[in-house]
């Protein structure tokens, strides 16, 4: 009964518990759908298809991140985050951005096709870019629901859209046996999600409006978010951009599957962080009281334990998982899982610190961390690939996260958010995990050296 009562009411704790539950349901459902589609489509299509789709996704995600002005964090933290004028201005900016990004895909299509020597990209990029328009039209009710930690209905609608999109993707794949099924299926998913969110989420109905004061606040806060997310793109998608030139499409497709599985724990951690941490830090700043810091410590320990536990599963059982789920064409993805899962541990440990800065309005400090990570990761990735091949490139991700963590600590200390006990416990556990996983699967990891480079 006490557990049930804890979920009731409008207090912050109750909203955190309900929202956490829905985030886990939403993430679990989303990943189940993605994994299911992955397993089905890898049996219908061919590894090269997933390599080509990785390039399409890299361009779309890159455009989104290189133009992100932080509308989500702005609505989450702003005192005006519930005012119609502010929300309408944010929505207008978002719509203009979505249409503009689609126009950019038209411009980039031919040059990207020439750069990667893949003529099909000239067609696939503009079609996939239609998703950017659909995303731009999403109502601000999505962001206000996140602001108030009221995300149950939104989660159900999002999962419904993904299921419909999966059905369309599988049907198209069976009919065409082409990458085009993945491209069009992604567009259908985004359009259906837009329709569902617009029809069934309650709240203010947006209209085109540009209020100068709201626009100024969005730009003032968002200018550093814009730079931070541009750098985050380099950190999260730069590997595909580089590997797309250095690996065959088949090898890139296998890498993409290994990355997808290894990144699973990070995705749930990032989902929780993006949905929950900024509102929590906004309402309970760690610098305000020792009681707040103690509550945040418990939350941080739970989040890190969950993420590191899942990363341990991916690192220790990577090759058997891939062997069970996929056919022999994808076996190298298991060793890729091992190395990447170990490399993601430092990022998992520091995931809450940057959200404390954003909740305090310190988007500039967040940019410094993101920018440093982006520069280091691309430098070490290229150096690792050239010196040690694919193994060196994979290892560079973990090395980057370790080097950047002291800079993240400096940011966290500025906002009274650093927890040295937490870091000591989880770095010790993470180091032990990496040593055991690499020792256990060294034979499979060594096989990665035989993957040909272009």
What does this structure look like?
It is a single chain. The protein has 454 residues and is mainly alpha-helical. 48% of the residues are buried. The longest helix is centred in the C-terminal third of the chain and has 36 residues, at 290-325. It contains 21 helices and no strands. It is globular, with a radius of gyration of 22 Å. The protein starts with a helix and ends in a 7-residue tail after the last helix. The chain has helices at residues 2-6, 12-44, 47-66, 71-77, 84-115, 121-128, 130-136, 141-147, 152-176, 180-200, 212-246, 249-262, 264-283, 290-325, 332-343, 345-349, 353-359, 363-388, 390-414, 420-440, 442-447. It folds into 2 domains: 21-223, no CATH class; 247-454, no CATH class.
Number of domains: 2
Q: What percentage of amino acids are in beta strands?
A: under 5%
Residue windows where pLDDT falls under 50 for at least 5 positions = 1-10
Oligomer: single chain
E-strand count = 0
Shape: globular
Task: Specify the number of helices.
Answer: 21
Please summarize the sheet with the most strands. none
The termini sit apart by 62 Å
Q: Kindly provide the radius of gyration, computed on alpha-carbon positions and rounded to a whole number of angstroms.
A: 22 Å
Query: How much is the average pLDDT?
Result: 82
Overall structural class, as computed from helix and strand content, comes to mainly alpha
């Amino acid at each position: 009964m006490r557990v049930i009562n804890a979920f009731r009411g409008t207090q912050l704790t109750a909203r955190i518990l309900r929202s956490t539950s829905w985030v886990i349901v939403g993430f679990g459902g989303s990943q189940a759908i993605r994994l299911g589609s992955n397993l089905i489509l890898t049996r219908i299509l061919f590894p090269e298809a997933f390599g080509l789709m990785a390039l399409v996704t890299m361009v779309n995600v890159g455009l989104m991140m290189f133009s992100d002005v932080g509308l989500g964090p702005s609505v989450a933290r702003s005192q005006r985050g519930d005012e119609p004028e502010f929300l309408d201005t944010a929505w207008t900016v978002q719509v203009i951005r979505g249409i503009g990004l689609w126009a950019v895909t038209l411009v980039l299509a031919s040059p990207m096709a020439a750069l990667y020597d893949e003529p099909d990209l000239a067609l696939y990029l503009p079609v996939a870019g239609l998703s950017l328009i659909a995303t731009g039209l999403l109502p601000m009710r999505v962001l206000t629901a996140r602001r108030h930690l009221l995300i149950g209905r939104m989660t159900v609608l999002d999962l419904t859209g993904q299921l419909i999109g999966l059905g369309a993707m599988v049907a198209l794949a069976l009919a065409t046996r082409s990458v085009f099924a993945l491209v069009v299926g992604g567009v259908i998913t985004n359009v259906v999600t837009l329709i569902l969110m617009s029809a069934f989420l309650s709240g203010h109905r947006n209209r085109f409006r540009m209020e100068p004061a709201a626009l100024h606040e969005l730009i003032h806060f968002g200018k550093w978010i814009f730079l931070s997310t541009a750098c985050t793109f380099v950190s999260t998608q730069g590997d595909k951009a580089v590997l797309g030139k250095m690996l065959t499409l088949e090898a890139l497709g296998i890498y993409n599957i290994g990355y997808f599985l290894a990144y699973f724990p990070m995705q749930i951690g990032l989902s929780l962080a993006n949905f929950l941490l900024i509102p929590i830090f906004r309402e309970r700043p760690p610098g305000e009281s020792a009681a707040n810091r103690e509550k945040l410590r418990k939350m941080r320990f739970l989040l890190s334990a969950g993420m590191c536990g899942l990363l341990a599963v991916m690192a220790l059982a990577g090759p058997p998982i891939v062997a069970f789920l996929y056919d022999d064409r994808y076996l190298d993805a298991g060793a890729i899982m091992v190395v990447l899962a170990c490399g993601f541990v430092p990022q998992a440990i520091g995931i809450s610190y940057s959200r404390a800065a954003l909740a305090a309005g310190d988007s500039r400090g967040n940019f410094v961390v993101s920018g440093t990570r982006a520069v280091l990761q691309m430098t070490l990735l290229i150096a690792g690939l050239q010196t040690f091949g694919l193994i060196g490139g994979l290892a560079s991700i973990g090395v980057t996260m370790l080097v950047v963590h002291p800079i993240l600590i400096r940011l966290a200390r500025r906002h009274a958010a650093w927890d040295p006990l937490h870091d000591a416990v989880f770095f010790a556990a993470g180091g032990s995990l990496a040593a055991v996983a690499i020792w256990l699967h060294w034979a499979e990891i060594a096989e990665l050296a035989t993957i040909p480079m272009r």
